[in-house]
Structure formats: C-alpha cells, structure tokens
C-alpha cells in the first residue's frame, strides 16, 4: 500500500478523492458500498495490482471526497465516475462495484457506454421487490443517526464493533472499514430513496460485458435467483457467478471464491 498514490480530481463541481496503484496496465476502477471508502477494497487490490492499474474511488460524501448538500442518487455517482475516467484519461476501464458501488457501475455503463469496458457487480441493490418502510423519512432519519453515532466512536471502538459484527472477515478489512465510518457524511443516505427505481431500466441499457456476483439471500444477500435470471435476459452480455456461504458482503465473506470469479472475468475482458 505504500506505493499507492492518493489523488484528487474535480467532477461535477466537487472534489473526488482516490488511491491508485499505477503502472502501464489495464485500468480497473473500484466503487465501494454506502458508508465505506475506496480503501475498503484493499484486500482485493493487493491481489490485483500486479496485473492491473487499480483506482479506488471515494464516492461523494465518503472518505476524503467532498460532501455536497444534495445529489446522492445513482445518476450523480455515475456522473462522478464518468468525470474521473475522463480526468484520468483511463479510456474504457473495467468497473468493479459493491452494493451502492455496483449500482454506480451499472448506471455508468448504461449512461456512459463510451467510457466503460466491462462491469463487475457484487450484489447490487437490485431487489425482487423494493423495500419500502412504513415511514421512509423516519427510517432514513434513524439511519443518519446511526451513521452520526459511529462517527463519534474511536477507530479502536469501531474495529472492535467490526470484529464483533463480522467475525469471519479478514483482519485486513478492519481498519479501512473503521476509518470509513468516521469519514462518511450522514447525508449519503439520500441514495437509499432511489432504490425503488426499477433496476431493469438500467440493466437493459448495459451493452458491455458484465459479471453479476450473487450470494445467499438467507444470509443477507440482495440479488435473488429470479433477479439474476432476469438480468441475464436484459443485459446483452451478462454472466452470473453464485458464491454460496456469503451474504451481502460477498468478497469479505468468501474472498477466494470472489477473487477467482473476478480474475477469470478480468482475463477475459481486460487481458
């Protein structure tokens, strides 16, 4: 990690922070889930950096990127990624995204097809039936309060919380996860209200090769088998890899299986 270069670009009037491994290699842009940051990809990037130029992006409102007062929908995030790709002159990189980041990758591929070579979608928020709480505003307020409470904790307290909540995660995950919780702006939950938008509208506009990585709904994974089947029909070039024994955080819970799926796909689409 000592060789990873931090940097900033300006997209859509805000500063977007990133870390980059560098080198004359095929570019891969990594997009984290909500309340995480770019360095939450550390374990995967360590496995990829010998062969790929990995760019770990802090989404708006996360990590060290700017936190605007509004504009946290998937189209806003996608515009930021498209701006970063252009600013860094990456050509058509592969995008790898988890959860919110997978939604961002999908929206970027759909809206900016000339800037995306392929996408890896780790359990995107593609629901069979979008969750609608009885009182959406109260639910978002509770979520914001939880984020604010975590921001007030020390890194040590958050690492202990991570170990308690996710005992199967590798210790490499602990510090980036903890630091991300102290950095995130509570306003990022504005993304959640957009989940009700039908994901099919986005999927059918994705023309590049796509890898959809799914796991077990009974363990907390979002994408159900029927959604994965529908995705393969809607997207022009989509393959699905199901990884058993994992929930929503697939790469953190079954890392070796996730790595095998991703590296196989990258060899096919990026060399």
The DSSP helix count reads: 10
The CA-CA distance between the termini, in Å, is 23 Å
Please identify, by name, the CATH architecture.
3-Layer(aba) Sandwich
How many strands in all? 8
Count of domains: 1
**SSE sequence, one letter per element:** EEEHEHEHEHHHHEHEHH
Strand content: 15-25%
Mean pLDDT: 95
Briefly note the structural class of the backbone: alpha/beta
The shape, in one word, is globular
Helix % is 25-40%
Biggest sheet layout: 8 strands, mixed
Class in CATH? Alpha Beta
Radius of gyration: 17 Å
Low-confidence stretches: none
Q: Major sheet: order of its strands?
A: 1-2-4-3-5-6-7-8
CATH fold call? Rossmann fold
Identify the CATH homologous superfamily: Alpha/Beta hydrolase fold, catalytic domain
Q: In words, what does this structure look like?
A:
- This protein is an alpha/beta fold and 271 residues long.
- It has helices at residues 42-48, 74-87, 100-111, 136-151, 155-165, 174-183, 199-203, 225-234, 250-253, 255-269; strands at 5-11, 14-20, 27-31, 53-57, 94-98, 118-122, 210-214, 238-242.
- The protein has a single domain (5-269), classed as 3-Layer(aba) Sandwich (Rossmann fold).
- It is built from 10 helices and 8 strands.
- Strands 1-2-4-3-5-6-7-8 form an 8-stranded mixed beta sheet, with helices on both faces.
- Strand 5, helix 3 (100-111) and strand 6 form a beta-alpha-beta unit.
- Helix 2 crosses helix 3 and helix 5 packs across helix 6.
- The two termini are 23 Å apart.
């Amino acid at each position: 990690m000592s060789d990873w270069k931090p940097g900033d670009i300006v997209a859509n009037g805000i500063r977007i922070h990133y870390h980059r491994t560098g080198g004359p290699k095929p570019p891969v842009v990594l997009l984290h889930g909500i309340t995480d940051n770019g360095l939450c990809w550390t374990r995967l990037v360590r496995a990829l950096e010998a062969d790929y130029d990995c760019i770990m992006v802090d989404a708006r409102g996360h990590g060290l990127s700017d936190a605007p007062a509004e504009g946290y929908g998937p189209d806003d995030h996608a515009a930021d990624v498209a701006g970063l790709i252009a600013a860094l002159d990456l050509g058509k990189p592969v995008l790898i995204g988890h959860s919110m980041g997978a939604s961002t990758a999908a929206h970027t591929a759909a809206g900016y097809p000339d800037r995306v070579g392929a996408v890896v979608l780790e359990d995107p928020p593609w629901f069979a039936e979008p969750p609608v709480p009885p009182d959406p505003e109260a639910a978002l307020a509770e979520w914001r309060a939880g984020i604010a409470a975590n921001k007030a904790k020390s890194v040590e307290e958050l690492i202990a919380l991570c170990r308690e909540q996710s005992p199967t995660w590798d210790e490499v995950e602990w510090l980036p996860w903890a630091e991300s919780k102290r950095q995130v702006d509570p306003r990022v939950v504005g993304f959640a209200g957009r989940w009700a938008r039908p994901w099919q509208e986005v999927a059918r506009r994705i023309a590049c090769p796509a890898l959809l990585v799914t796991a077990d709904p009974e363990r907390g994974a979002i994408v159900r088998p029927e959604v994965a089947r529908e995705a393969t029909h809607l997207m022009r070039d989509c393959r699905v890899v199901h990884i058993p024994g994992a929930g929503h955080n697939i790469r953190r819970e079954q890392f070796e299986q996730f790595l095998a799926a991703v590296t196989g796909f990258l060899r096919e689409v990026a060399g």
